[in-house]
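Backbone geometry tokens:
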Amino acid sequence: MVELLKALADETRLRILAQVLKGKLCVCEIENCLVLTQSNVSRHLTILKSAGILSSYKKAQWTYYMINDDFINNHKYLYDYLCQEVKRLPSYQMDSINLQKSKFQDLCQCKK
């Protein structure tokens, strides 16, 4: 439980989570919508995945991240709380707008 709560105790990771809650995202989409470097995003994604919050799969050279089903099943109340509360992050609106814009761009030709 400590690892899980530590993973959630970072604003950048909460920002990532807020966007991934909308559906699976490629790393390049996360970088673009949060305006972060690839290395920074990768570091945070590794922590979220290690804590069991996110899962991922690779398609060619692209990695896609989504909410881990086990996290949802094992932490239903926390999951529901996060779904509601991440919308209150100061950056949520701008990150959401950036995500919508990135969906219309073919950032890395990562077809889903």
Observations:
- Strands lie at 25-26, 54-59, 62-67.
- The first helix runs from residue 2 to 8.
- The chain has a mean pLDDT of 93.
